[in-house]
Specification:
binds flavin-adenine dinucleotide, Butyryl-CoA Dehydrogenase, subunit A, domain 2, 10 helices, alpha+beta, 4-stranded antiparallel beta sheet, globular, Butyryl-Coa Dehydrogenase, subunit A, domain 1, 10 strands, about 15% strand, about 375 residues
């Protein structure tokens, strides 16, 4: 039922707009109100907190269905729902949940998450943004970059250092309009162009201590756990992009004729399609298996991180390769905006960078396999 509902929503609310929004680097803000009505924005938030009370499998299905049509809006949806809303529901105080969740779950407010910084990407714990306690307030200084929904978001779940140690990380809820907080430049990107990405700037941003989420200096575990579910659910976007690429390429291989026969009769085209389909199915199994194990509580700690990293690594590489192959199958048309496969390829590439690069996923997997030997 969820799959059908999201598929219909994607066709009616995302499909008609994405080509123009991708071209103009716009944003489908209206779709978030509709997602709110459908209960998608609080999909894994418990019902008692105003959410839909579903799980990681459901969120991944949603990502795949939306991702097959419009990966950009789906990326913004992921940042809103998994990185912001879910984290407030999981870690916020009753007051914070009451204050922020209703408008985020209805779509009235747009959320985002700020972890990465200009000098701290893969090495997230190398962040320099500092929150200094001052009586019953904190004063935040520093900046975050690459923040999805940064240019147009209302509420941000932001990590900052509250001590000198690498692990002294705390979390703060930051609202647009708070004194000393501003959003910097919006980046112009190769893909995911209808998902605004930008900077968050803190210049003596003074906030009440009530904006802190959890105990001071205790955020690393929450941050890592969220990265795991992010990596599982974002793999749904890779699956969606790959599925759409395969559909377009298969149709084209049946319709396009050269040398007096459909190009699908050529074994080199068949090989590309067959490999794409098999790799997509393999990644689908891996991703939904990871989501299911997550939901059943079968994965904790480093084991969860490894499984999430495997799903993310394979799905991301698969999506890029499959989208590239789709372009090849479409020949010259694949290289133009006449067909969506060039957009699929541009969007897929982000899957190999955002939520931790391929290289970092390999580091996570190898460390778990090799233990201390990996860091010798
Ligand atoms: C469109 C987009 C949206 C994003 N949204 C968000 C968001 O909402 N919130 C947020 O906090 N962040 C967000 N990010 C940031 C994203 O998570 C980072 O870009 C990513 O973690 C990589 O960091 P970096 O870009 O600084 O690259 P770097 O860390 O500088 O890496 C550069 C290269 O070095 C490699 N490398 C680094 N360390 C190692 C290592 N130990 N071993 C081997 N290779 C290594 C990398 O794999 C990469 O190839 C977004 C990024 C993009 C592009």
């Amino acid at each position: 039922m969820l799959q059908d509902t999201v598929r219909q929503f994607a066709q009616s609310s995302l499909a008609p707009k994405i080509e123009t929004l991708d071209h103009e680097e716009g944003f489908n803000r209206e779709s978030f109100y509709k997602m709110g009505e459908l209960g998608l924005l609080g999909i894994i938030v418990p019902e008692e907190d105003g959410g839909t009370g579903m799980d990681a499998v459901a969120a991944t299905i949603t990502m795949e269905e939306m991702g097959a049509v419009d990966a950009s809006t789906t990326l913004s949806y992921l940042a809103h729902t998994i990185l912001c809303v879910n984290q407030i529901a999981k870690n916020g105080t009753p007051e914070q949940k009451k204050k922020y969740l209703p408008k985020l779950i209805s779509g009235e407010h747009l959320g985002g998450m700020g972890m990465s910084e200009p000098g701290a990407g893969s090495d997230a714990l190398g962040m320099k943004t500092k929150a200094q306690r001052s009586g019953d307030q904190y004063v935040i200084n520093g900046s975050k970059t690459w923040i999805t929904n940064g240019p147009n978001g209302d509420v941000f779940y932001v990590y900052a250092k509250t001590g000198e140690g690498k692990r002294d990380v705390s979390t703060f809820l930051i609202e647009r309009g708070m004194p000393g907080f501003s959003t910097g430049k919006k980046f112009s990107k190769m893909g995911m162009r209808a998902s605004p990405t930008g900077e968050l700037v803190f210049a003596d941003c003074r906030i009440s201590a009530a904006q802190r989420v959890g105990e001071e200096g205790s955020s690393i575990k929450m941050m890592m756990r969220n990265l795991d579910i992010e990596r599982i659910t974002i793999s749904g976007i890779s699956l969606g992009i790959a599925r759409a690429s395969i559909e377009v390429a298969t149709r084209y291989a049946k319709e396009r004729s050269q040398f007096g026969k459909p190009i699908g009769a050529f074994q080199q085209i068949q090989e590309r399609l067959a490999e794409a389909s098999a790799w997509y199915e393999a990644c689908r199994c891996l991703t939904y298996d990871a989501a299911k194990m997550w939901d059943m509580g079968m994965m904790v700690g480093k084991e969860a991180s490894m499984m999430a990293a495997k799903a993310k690594l394979q799905s991301a590489q698969m999506a890029t390769k499959v989208a590239l192959d789709a372009i090849q199958i479409l020949g010259g048309y694949g290289y133009t905006r006449e067909f969506p496969v060039e957009r699929y390829m541009r969007d897929a590439k982000l899957m190999e960078i955002g939520a931790g690069t391929n290289e970092i996923q390999r580091v996570i997997i190898a460390r778990q396999m090799l233990g201390e030997a990996a860091d010798a």
